[in-house]
């Protein structure tokens, strides 16, 4: 018996793997930006004066956190057309990822905003800064500094989870792997290489976020 | 053409949910046992053992679970094992759970003051005795909330095994959906079943967190 591993197909496949990886990076970039912005609103709503707003956000967070991402994705992609909302796979993937991400980051961002002492806000207001500027210049940078590690982990978890969107035919890394293995009949080798690509991406993303984050946040703090 | 009433859908989904529950329990139990082994390596006195465990954990936390499942499903037959979806699912989730649980418990072990180890050795206990009687019980107690939290994550992760062909809740729902063309109802119900499984555990995690916070 004995099975000889064969990586000869790899030469012709680098383009597919690269374009799949680019799609995965695009998806997670969109999700991160949209997710963080939405979770600022989510965190604010959770601390608002109106109980109904607080309850709505809490219900949304619990609903997302207690159901699998795959089911959320299927619900959005296959279930919504019943109401006439027919989404392109890429749009459905971005929507599902953002909704999922926001449920987790709302808690993270909220705890970061809580961690900024009230005196910071008062001092900035006393200097005559308008409220929105107080938030952007004073509160947000300090909150981001606190939550940065948790946020980074969540972004990486979401990137790894995004492999699931291959199931609705979004042409990201896992989808390209599926296509490749169907063509080369080298399933193990294909998934092995692609797994390594994911590993490299998660290590690289963590390094990048920490390096970039330290500089940007230190600048914002000064 | 078979007609599905609403109750047929519910009944079939609930029957399939048994496999989701069974898979979660088996993977959690297996993952706990393997996780303790990884934990022992991770906190070992030998540097290369610690390093090896660190890489193991990093590997499982740095790659998608779906890829891990694919590699097992397609890789094990190459080594001469006959593998079915159930075996790959159990093995994949167990390995993945062991990495996450080991990392959670390591946090617990390292949060204990070194005086706990010293006290153990002053009682004449050997390394194993110190671990078994003093360190691990406390580490498990501190990390109960994240451990239950991980169980929730594990239950949700079982959904991925549908992709390698294991007949659990999601795979069954895909089949029902193909027969009934009612994705909204079917996936809504599936989400509801997962929610009913996970939400009590999430609540329990919150209670445990509050209890731990009060103790400190």
UniProtKB/TrEMBL annotation, chain A:
Listed transmembrane segments: 12-45, 57-80, 123-140, 190-209
Biological process terms in GO annotation: amino acid transport
Main location: membrane
GO molecular function: transmembrane transporter activity
Subcellular location: Cell inner membrane; Cell membrane
Pfam families: BPD_transp_1
Keyword check for Membrane: yes
UniProtKB keywords: Cell membrane, Membrane, Transmembrane, Transmembrane helix, Transport
The ABC transmembrane type-1 domain, residue ranges: 21-209
Membrane topology (UniProt): Multi-pass membrane protein
Keyword Transport appears in the UniProt entry: yes
GO cellular component: ATP-binding cassette (ABC) transporter complex
InterPro entries associated with the record: AA_ABC_transptr_permease_3TM, ArtM/GltK/GlnP/TcyL/YhdX-like, MetI-like, MetI-like_sf
UniProt signal peptide: none
Xref: NCBIfam families: HEQRo_perm_3TM
Family membership noted in the UniProt record: Belongs to the binding-protein-dependent transport system permease family. HisMQ subfamily.
Name under which the protein is recorded: Polar amino acid transport system permease protein
Protein's organism: Phyllobacterium trifolii
Lineage, highest ranks first: Bacteria, Pseudomonadati, Pseudomonadota, Alphaproteobacteria, Hyphomicrobiales
Automatic annotation (TrEMBL), chain B:
GO BP of this protein: amino acid transport
InterPro entries noted in UniProt: AA_ABC_transptr_permease_3TM, ArtM/GltK/GlnP/TcyL/YhdX-like, MetI-like, MetI-like_sf
Main location: membrane
Annotated transmembrane regions: 20-43, 55-79, 85-102, 184-202
Keyword NADP: no
Pfam families: BPD_transp_1 (PF00528)
UniProt keyword Chloroplast, yes or no: no
Keyword list, A-Z: Cell membrane, Membrane, Transmembrane, Transmembrane helix, Transport
ABC transmembrane type-1 domain span: 17-205
Membrane topology: Multi-pass membrane protein
Family membership: Belongs to the binding-protein-dependent transport system permease family. HisMQ subfamily.
Domain of life, per lineage: Bacteria
GO cellular component terms, semicolon-separated: ATP-binding cassette (ABC) transporter complex
SUPFAM superfamilies on file: MetI-like
Protein name, per record: Polar amino acid transport system permease protein
Any one GO molecular function term: transmembrane transporter activity
Localization annotation: Cell inner membrane; Cell membrane
Species assigned in the record: Phyllobacterium trifolii
